[in-house]
Write a structure and sequence with these properties.
By secondary structure, the protein is mainly alpha-helical. The chain is built from 14 helices and 4 strands.
């Protein structure tokens, strides 16, 4: 185990302290401000823990331009890409749901059903313990007495069951004459935050989405139509009592359509912030994959990642200039290709050669499938 820096020790201590405070508030008898304290503290616990992990692994924790500590979302993305941590999509989704719930509660208000709150916090404790063991070879039990865990008077229920039950409650609140639309909107925000399990771009909740969902509920649409991203997600519960472990898992889902039109007549559609989805420039992408920029350019051409297909890349146009940016899908495609392709052959076939020197250079043959010689202006 490498020697820990002062920053790592402080950040990990802060993470455990915030988690303890959040658990204490969850188990408290006072309901005033309880949900707010729980979400603020548990979200902060993960932000400190992930940054402790990044610093421990000698990864970048400060933004180059602003010289400020990176956001939780950026920390999640880096931990998904970092060898030795490899945060899974489901684990990243667990953290994003907490972050989205915290954001909605801190800046406005939400109504989180008790069963859903318990499921998310218990999944957070399971993941926190897993990360401590995975990176620092520690257990959460080393920092907490066994009784200090989220306690519920009800056994943990399946996520899909909780979502269905909450959807029925929202439909009841939105019936004509109830005059309970404000509470219904608060519950809708909680379910929209839960969609971050399936899609990082759904982590931010817009009021346009809240109104669209409410319209779909009033029209009598099924839950699967209004929240298709949550279809196929459930919870894996193991153990019982104080030893219970909860993990949010994916078992498949329905196709989802995206739009930037706030007036689109489809309650299930979520607006997408393209600048957050496509956040890496060519140099950032090369650095994160761990290859030279020239090789990265050749590999992108080989894989067709510059096609501007809104899956791997998107070209942003600002006046007379344009910039191409890449998503996590592009990173994963390049990372996988580096393991199975000969980069020197790919570079020889796809490199950029000055026009006046092309007659002097004969590139070696590329024996990789799909690799053809392409001279680029």
């Amino acid at each position: 185990m490498p020697r820990e820096s002062y920053n790592v020790r402080v950040l990990r201590t802060k993470a455990v302290a915030s988690l303890r405070t959040g658990i204490t508030a969850f188990n408290g008898l006072d309901n005033d401000g309880r949900v707010t304290i729980v979400l603020l503290c548990v979200q902060h616990a993960f932000e400190m823990l992930l940054k402790a992990i990044l610093d421990f692994k000698k990864a970048r924790v400060f933004d180059k331009k602003s010289q400020k500590s990176i956001s939780l979302e950026n920390a999640v993305r880096l931990c998904q890409q970092l060898d030795g941590v490899q945060l899974s999509d489901e684990e990243a989704g667990t953290i994003r749901v907490l972050d989205s719930l915290r954001d909605a509660e801190q800046h406005w208000h939400i109504v989180v059903e008790e069963g859903l709150l318990y499921l998310n916090i218990r999944a957070a404790v399971t993941l926190f313990d897993s990360l401590l063991g995975r990176v620092f070879d520690e257990r959460l039990a080393d920092h907490l007495p066994p009784r200090v865990l989220p306690i519920s008077s009800e056994p943990p229920q399946s996520l899909d069951l909780l979502v269905d039950r909450e959807y029925e409650r929202i439909a009841g609140l939105l019936k004509p004459g109830r005059k309970a639309s404000a509470e219904a909107m608060g519950r809708i925000r909680a379910l929209l935050a839960t969609e971050a399990l399936a899609d990082p771009d759904a982590a931010e909740i817009s009021e346009a989405d809240v109104r669209r969902v409410a319209r779909g509920v009033r029209e009598g649409k099924e839950r699967q139509q209004v929240f298709p991203k949550l279809t196929g997600f459930s919870s894996d519960v193991q153990g019982s009592g104080l030893t219970v472990e909860v993990r949010l898992v994916k078992a498949g889902g329905l196709p989802v359509t995206y739009t930037t039109d706030p007036n689109a007549d489809a309650a299930a559609i979520r607006t997408v912030d393209l600048e957050k989805k496509f956040y890496m420039g060519p140099n950032d992408l090369a650095e994160r994959v761990g290859i030279a920029r020239s090789r990265a350019t050749a590999l992108r051409r080989h894989l067709g990642l510059d096609a501007n297909d809104d899956h791997y890349s998107h070209r942003f146009v600002f006046g007379g200039t344009s910039h191409i940016r890449y998503s996590d899908n592009a990173f994963r495609a390049m990372k996988d290709s580096v393991k199975r392709l000969d980069l020197e052959h790919v570079w020889a076939a796809h490199r950029t050669i000055p026009y006046n020197k092309r007659h002097e250079i004969v590139p070696p043959a590329c024996d990789q499938p799909g690799c053809v010689v392409k001279f680029t202006e």
